[in-house]
Amino acid sequence: AQSVTQLDSQVPVFEEAPVELRCNYSSSVSVYLFWYVQYPNQGLQLLLKYLSGSTLVKGINGFEAEFNKSQTSFHLRKPSVHISDTAEYFCAVSEGASGTYKYIFGTGTRLKVLA
Amino acid sequence: KAGVTQTPRYLIKTRGQQVTLSCSPISGHRSVSWYQQTPGQGLQFLFEYFSETQRNKGNFPGRFSGRQFSNSRSEMNVSTLELGDSALYLCASSLVGLAGAPSKNIQYFGAGTRLSVL
After folding, report:
1. Could you tell me if A40 lies within 8 Å of chain B, comparing CB atoms?
2. Neighbouring C-beta atoms of residue A20, cutoff 10 Å
3. d(CA A59, CA B21)
4. Residue A109 pLDDT class (50, 70, 90 cuts)
5. Chain A hits for B31, Cβ within 8 Å
6. A81-98 pLDDT, tens per residue?
7. Which long-range contacts (CB under 8 A, 24 or more apart) does B56-63 make?
8. Interface of B with A in 16-55 (CB under 8 A)
9. By three-state DSSP, how is residue B83 classified?
10. B79 Cα to chain A: minimum distance (Å)
11. What would the pLDDT profile of B18-52 be if each residue is shown by its tens digit?
């Protein structure tokens, strides 16, 4: 069975500082990996995805993530955060060859950007 | 192109009642999935529908059910509501290929329906 672990439930960071949100997954098969962001009272918005190919993927709003198969990680990074990045971030995994859209989500990381 | 539309946005029900939530997917998307989001359990997969058939199901009791119509719109129903059913219910739509397999593997989420059970 697949699982996703987001070790940090909350991450405070000052504006213009870099940030890394950690995500580790467990799966016995190949997976697809995603990061979504959720702003208050809104649904989830896709930040970036890894399906195959280059292990460094770039997303919207200046975010990027690196897929590390040996460490089963998919950490999200941004070199300089803004107040508007304050939100909850979810890492998700789906089974690559399953043929369906079942996602397993991590428990989320609340990013709080401080002025 | 319009996004995923969920109605209503907010609902208040009492224990024992039943509720129906609606989801209109993005035009051309034929797969619809439902998730429950709570502070304690996070985001949990409920079920996925494609071509009016449920093809994947999460670990929820039979009180949770759904259906999909020929125009890909979907509804989910929760019967005999319990306090623990209070949650944000999210719907996601996705493209599928000819054989129903995921295409591009991206789910697009609606804003959700917030259900409060009193």
Report:
1. no
2. 12
3. 32
4. very high
5. 101
6. 999 999 999 999 987 666
7. B56/A100, B56/A101, B56/A102, B58/A102, B60/B36
8. 31, 33, 35, 42-45, 48, 50, 55
9. helix
10. 23
11. 999 999 999 999 999 999 999 888 999 999 999 89
